[in-house]
Amino acid sequence: MNVWLRQLGTLEFWKALLDSFGGLGPIAPIVLAMVESFFPPLPLVAIVALNVAAHGGLLGFLYSWAGVALGGCIMFLLWRRVVKRFFWKFASRSPKLEKAQQWVNRFDTSSLFMLTLLPFTPSSFMHLAFGISDFDEKRYLITMLLGKGVMVALIALFGQSLVSSLKNPVYLVLAILLWAGMYWVSKKFCKKHNLE
C-alpha cells in the first residue's frame, strides 16, 4: 500500500495515466465531458483540464466542447421535446417547475450567453428551466453552444496552464488566478439571478 501511495505522488505515475487516457482516442474525452450535463457533481474544470493534459490544447478543447455541447443539447431537447410535450400536464403541477419556468422570463439572449459562459453555474438546472419554458429553441441552442464554447476555451487555457506549470511554476499561479476569477464571476452572476 505504501509503495502504491508513493507512486501516486510521482510525476511518472501521472504521465503514464495521461498517456493511457490519451490512448483511448476521442470517444472517452467527449463522453466524459458529456456526462457532466447529466450528472452535475462532476467537476467540468477537472474534466477539461484532464482532456487538455492528455490530448493537447486544441484537441482537448475540441473534445471537451463537443461533449459539453452534445450533453447540453440532449438535456435541453429531452426537457423540451419529451417532458414538455408529453408530460407537462402532470409536471406543471409542481411549484418548483413552475418557479423555474418563471425564472427564465427574466433572461434575454445576452444574459443567457453570460449564464452559459460561466463554468460554475448549474447547467443541468439551466437546461431544465429553458427546456420547459417558452424560450425560443433555436436561439437557446445557438447561444448555449457559443457560450459553452467560450467557457470550455477558458477552462482549456486553465488546463494548459496546469500542464505548463510542470515546467514553470509561474503558470500554476496564473492557472489558480484564472480559476479563482471564473469562480468569483460565476458566484456573482448566480447571486444576481437567484441561482444559489
TrEMBL record:
In what residue span(s) does the VTT domain sit? 43-160
The source's superkingdom equals Bacteria
Q: What is its main location?
A: membrane
The annotated topology with respect to the bilayer is: Multi-pass membrane protein
List keywords of the entry alphabetically: Cell membrane, Membrane, Transmembrane, Transmembrane helix
- The protein, known as: TVP38/TMEM64 family membrane protein
**InterPro entries annotated for this entry?**
TMEM64, VTT_dom
One Gene Ontology cellular component: plasma membrane
Keyword Hydrolase applies? no
Database matches in Pfam families: VTT_dom
Could you list the residue ranges that cross the membrane?
27-50, 57-79, 112-133, 140-163, 169-186
Give the classification, highest ranks: Bacteria, Bacillati, Bacillota, Clostridia, Eubacteriales
Q: Which species is the source of this protein? A: Faecalibacterium wellingii
User: Member of which family?
Assistant: Belongs to the TVP38/TMEM64 family.
Localization, per the record, is: Cell membrane
